[in-house]
Amino acid sequence: MNTTKSHIHSVTSHGLQGIRSRAGEHLNQIVSNRSEIRVINQDEVVDEGDLLAQIGYKQELNRSYNSLQVFGIAFSIMGLLPSIASTLATGLEVGPVGLTWGWLISGLFILCIGALMSILSSLIPTSGGLYYWTNYYAPDLIRTPLSFMIGCSNSLALCGGICLINYGFAIELLSAIYINKDGNFDITNARVYGVFAACVVSHIILCCATTKHTATLQTFSIFINVFIIVLFFIAVPVGVSKNYEFNSAKFIFTEIKNFRTWDQGWSFMLSWMPAIW
């Protein structure tokens, strides 16, 4: 019995030493191949390709987007009216205070994050984005794992965001049909999933297009989003003034009605989610 235990212990120790040895060699190889931190001097930059060369990048991708179209990417992702409509109920679960002040407070924090990210992107305008910035500025000890974690979490968030946007669109589209038919329409799970799946397939097809074509589509998307917002600001006040009455400022900024099982404080903080989403 003791001989067997000794043999097992010997085999286990030998295996662990082999794993440690290979892991150590791999880490040493990574460290030895790592380049030194570069000093970037924007005053000596001739063009964008030269700036990327200072950072350590070679320009590989065609740049077909102009400044307006780059802005349009973020503007279209936000999809102001559809996003507000799909998250409106979450903000109102603590009353008008939750939707109004929750949006303003969380929006202030989001503005700070956006300003910091704009500074980083202007200093290091690389396609790597978040995980490259993390690798560039993080301490050596956590540089690689932290960059990996940021890259994976960002990829998962983008995949989840696409699904959420498509699901919200499916609900809104079917709700519009329901209202148009005065309730003579059933919104079933199968119909919701069908519209959702069609949206995902359409995105796959659009992603197969060249950057030149997607840039043109992006310009079209900007005008559509602006048109919807302008139409909203015209149609809603006119419709409310003819059929309803506007709520008072006191009701909008001070009225609290907690419909959640959480206490009032936590419920108010949960109402920040519409703007954060």
UniProtKB/TrEMBL annotation:
GO MF term (any one): transmembrane transporter activity
Keywords: Membrane, Transmembrane, Transmembrane helix, Transport
InterPro entries, A to Z: AA/rel_permease1 (IPR002293)
Gene Ontology CC, one term: membrane
Pfam families: AA_permease_2
Membrane topology field: Multi-pass membrane protein
PANTHER family named in the record: AMINO-ACID PERMEASE BAT1 (PTHR45649), GABA-SPECIFIC PERMEASE (PTHR45649:SF6)
Protein name: Amino acid permease/ SLC12A domain-containing protein
Species of origin: Debaryomyces fabryi
